[in-house]
Specification:
Elements lengths: L6 H7 L31 E6 L4 E3 L9 E9 L8 E5 L2 E6 L4 E5 L3 E9 L7 E3 L1 E5 L1
Parallel strand pairs: 1-8, 2-9
Antiparallel strand pairs: 1-3, 3-6, 4-5, 4-7, 7-9
Protein name: Penicillin-binding C-terminal domain-containing protein
């Protein structure tokens, strides 16, 4: 199949139903194939926006009371992803509906946070963030 820019050229090449293909395969424009003329929808980007990349948190004396808010935003199509799962260092630490945010315990070390749809079938690009707790 050829993109719409080739419609005029293709119409000339396939006059009377002939095909220039050596093996007799038809040459078709996308406009002539049902549901093929539409451009595919862009896959939305789900990014963790908080904490900001490279943020360093200082642990305070009462570690048990210290939490860090993680937030994610969806750029793009305005698709509803339903609940998101938040993962810290590859381990799920909680889920959140919109607005996508969650408080997590502050643990010493370097960490990566990723948010993903709870439904793994949903097409989405993912962008994580890294932060440290000292």
């Amino acid at each position: 199949m050829f993109p719409p820019e080739f419609d005029e050229w293709l119409a000339f090449k396939t006059i009377a139903g002939d095909t220039p293909d050596l093996h007799g395969r038809p040459w078709l424009s996308r406009a002539r194939v049902p549901d093929c003329d539409e451009r595919p929808a862009a896959v939305p980007l789900l990014r963790v926006v908080a904490p900001a990349p490279g943020t360093v948190f200082a642990l305070d004396q009462r570690r048990d009371a210290q939490t860090i808010e993680v937030r994610a935003e969806l750029d793009g199509s305005g698709v509803d992803l339903g609940p998101l799962a938040f993962l810290v260092d590859g381990r799920e630490v909680g889920r959140s509906d919109w607005p996508y945010k969650l408080k997590i315990a502050a643990e010493p070390g370097d960490h990566e946070v990723l948010a993903r749809p709870a439904d793994p079938r949903l097409p989405v690009r993912l962008e994580s963030t890294r932060f440290s707790v000292r």
